[in-house]
Every structure is written in C-alpha cells, then in structure tokens.
Amino acid sequence: MNRISAAADELGRSIMAGVEEMGKILLLFLSVVAWMFRPPLKARNILKQMEFVGVKSIFVVVLTGSFTGMVMALQSYHGFHMFSAESLVGSTVALGMTRELGPVLTALMVTARAGSAMAAELGTMRVTEQIDALYVMAANPVKHLIVPRVIAGVLMLPLLTVVSDFVGIIGGYFVGVHLLHINEGVFLKNITRMVDLNDLYNGLIKAACFGLILSVIGCYKGFNASGGAEGVGKATTDAVVFSSITILISDYFLTAIMF
Amino acid sequence: MIRLVDIHKSFGKQKVLDGLNLDIEDGKTTVIIGRSGGGKSVLLKHVIGLLKPDSGQVLIDDVDMTKLNERDLNEIRKRFGMLFQEAALFDSMTVGENVAFPLREHTKMTEKEIRQIVSDRLRSVGLTGVEEKMPSELSGGMKKRVGLARAIALRPEIVLFDEPTTGLDPVMTEAINQLIMDTQKNFNLTCIVISHDIESIFRIGHRIAMLYEGKIIEYGTPEVIRTSTDPVLVQFLSGSINGPIMIL
Questions:
Q1: Which of B 84-113 lie inside 8 A of A, CB atoms?
Q2: What is this structure's pTM?
Q3: Contacts with B70 from chain A: Cβ below 8 Å
Q4: Which residues contact B154 (CB under 8 A, 6 or more apart)?
Q5: What was the ipTM of the complex prediction?
Q6: Contact criterion met (CB below 8 Å) for B203 and B28
Q7: What are the structural domains of chain B?
Q8: Residue-wise pLDDT tens for chain A (259 aa)?
C-alpha cells in the first residue's frame, strides 16, 4: 500500500511541477510581449538573431525538406500504384508538405539547431553571471536577450517553411516523374487542382506558432539554468525535448482548428 | 550610506544570512571576509537588489531597496558598478562593446564620445589597444581589468567587487589591489570588496567586516580587526585548522 501511495505522490509532484513550469513559461511569454513594444528596439540584436535562426538554417532545411518530399513520393507511389492512382502522388506530396511536414519537420530541425543554441547560450550566460551583470547595469535581460530571439523564431520559421515546402515538392517531382515515371502533366495538374493557398497559409501560421514555442521554451530553459556545465547541458536537452513535444502536440490542436 | 538591517535569507532549508546588520560608510573601502560558501556573495547581491531578503531592509540613503519596483530599482542601480568574480564580460561582444554597454544603454552620447570614454576607462585600468579583442582572447587578469573598466564606465558612486583577486598570481593580485585603491581614491568611491586574501584586505580596506554563521561578528578598522581576540576571527586570519571554525 505504501508503494502505491509513494508512486501516486511522485506522480502528483511531477504533474504539479509540470504545471508550475508551464505557468512560468507563460509568464515569460507575457513578459516578452510587454518588452517587445517598449522602445528603443534593439534592431541589431534582432537582425543578428534572424540571421542565426533563419539564414543559417537554410542548408539543413533544404536537405530535410527535399528528402522528405522524395521519400513521400516513393512511399505514396507504392500505395497508389495498387489502385492505378499514381497521378495523385504529386498532390499528396504537396499537401503533405504544405499542411504538415513542411511546418513540423522544419520546426523540429530548427529546434534542434537554434532552440538548443538559445538554451545553451543563455544558460552559459546565466552560470557565468552575465545575466546578473545585465541586471546590475539596469538593463533588462528579457528585452536584450529573449525578445530578439522570439521575434527571430516567429518571423523566420514561416520563411524557412516556404523553402521547405518548395524543395519538398521539387524532390517529390524529381522522384515521381523522373524515377517512377509518373506522367509529368498529370502530376503537376493534380497539384494545382487539389492544393490551394489555404493549405500553404495554414501551414505558415502553424510555422509561426512553432517558432514562438521553440524560442520561448529554448530561452526559458537557458535563462533558468543553474549548476555549471551540467546545468547548461540539461537545460539544452530539456529545451529541445520539451519544445519538440510541445510542437507535436500543438500541431494536432492547430490542425484540428484550422482544417 | 548603505545599511543592511536585520537581513534574513534562506535557500530552501539552508539559512545563509541570519539577522545580519552592517553599515557601509561612504567614500571608504569596506572589505567583507568570511568562509567559503558563507554567504558573502549573497550579501553583496542583496546590496544591489539581485536578491531580496526574506526579511529585513536594505537601505541606500534611507531608501529601502527591497520595496522598490523595477523602474526605481534600476534608477538606483545606475549609481552602482559591480565587478563579478569571473568578470562576467558578455562573450558575444568585443572588449570595447562591453565597456561601452552601460554608456549606450543609459546615455545619449555620440559614438565618438563613447569611443573616447571607453579608451579612457581602459587606460585607467592599464589596458590600451584591446578594444577589438573578444573576451575569450583575454587572460584572467585582463578580463578583471576590463570588467572593472565596464563597472566604472558611468562613473558610479558605489562599486562592488566579488573576490577581485581570487585565482590571480601574486603580481596580478597586487596590480588589482593597487587599481582598486587608486580608483577609490581618485573618484572618492564607496567600495565594497569581498575577499579571502588576508594580505589584500589589510592593504585595501578602510573597514573590515567578518561574516560568520550569517551574522557580522566583528567590524572595524584594520587595527581593530588585527588585534581582535574573537576566537573565530583569530582562527580565520591565521588560517589555522584549530579553533571554533569547523572544517566541513
């Protein structure tokens, strides 16, 4: 009986800790929004972060996107071939990329790259007292460090997703038409027939939300790191895991609302 | 005048400050000594509002820091400069950008004026031509000197030093001590220094306070401290393992 109550106790504590953490993350988000509109804006910091999150992720996003499109074409071909419906491969790839895989996979790759960097950088600043130094110099760390990163996340993710969608569809085209010999005209016609701009736009809205999630969680974890190198390592891991899980869960709810 | 009145602070179950009372005199260097992990850095962080006490008051010219909102707290912070133990330089910025940071943040000076002041401050800590270097390229002693230049960029009235000479060789230690004394004298600063280095504290301190078990157990001029018969103080100053202070 004792073991059961101990386990229940443990579970209860974990849930409460989780809820408390979500609350703190929400408070940080509200603080970020408040500071975003207080001048002067640190344009240089913002642009620097946009370059880091956006421009420097392009290679990874192109690679992930194109191979995802290619494998989608390959896999869906096998299924559709059974019903002689190979002509639908193009639209399947395009819909899959714009609605789901573009936003989600891009967000996961950027989380792994930029989200972890945000946590690591802010965590290191925290344990080397650089964040205390900002407070001491009457400068607010949220404004200087976190706002630029969140803005970069929200603005750059949709742009990267567009790139991902585009190269994914091209990858799918290459595999479908040139390797699997699907009729090119039919392939392309079905894309334009079945995919409309809403699919793209909703995907980009999702991407912006994911950008917000990964940057706020990454910054939160880093900002609250403690305990030296191990603490920074833990913060970085937690940031990536927690962001990824939140992205996947919110993907469901966003999709349910939008589509 | 800075006054810490009946400060209590715990972290979880650990009581770090237990009814601490301390007055810091203006225009003098007050050195705080005490055991490692004894709460000296915690005390320093209370002075500048990085930590809030569980109870008690931190009075800066009779204004209670613990009751201020962030904006007013920031106004008071502009009167302070702080040199952190590892200098806490922003590693994404150059030395020049680090020292210029408070100037860019709080003044409307032109770039030319800022460059001039940065060069001035760096020169006063014995560094020239290092503006373009990154903190990672600097030695420990140089980092501390840049940290000090940044701390005095806005010509604050009060400067806090968290173990300024810990980890430095004897020559560098003396150089930093000399720097602290010169800067304090030239600008009539109120300095609060945390240190373990017994020789340094007698050298630079106008007043010395010993923190032990969360309280200030002895406070006075170097002479008073040197001739004190308090067994804890005697053991600490002589660096003996025999006495009331337990080795944990």
A1: 84-86, 88-92, 101-102, 105-106
A2: 0.90
A3: 140
A4: B78, B81, B102, B103, B106, B107
A5: 0.91
A6: no
A7: 1-79+157-248 (3.40.50.300), 88-156 (no CATH)
A8: 788 999 999 999 999 998 999 999 999 999 999 998 887 778 888 999 999 999 999 999 999 999 999 999 999 999 999 998 989 999 999 999 999 999 999 999 999 999 999 999 999 999 999 999 999 999 999 999 999 999 999 999 999 999 999 999 999 999 999 999 999 999 999 999 999 999 999 999 999 999 999 999 999 999 999 988 999 999 999 999 999 999 999 999 999 998 7
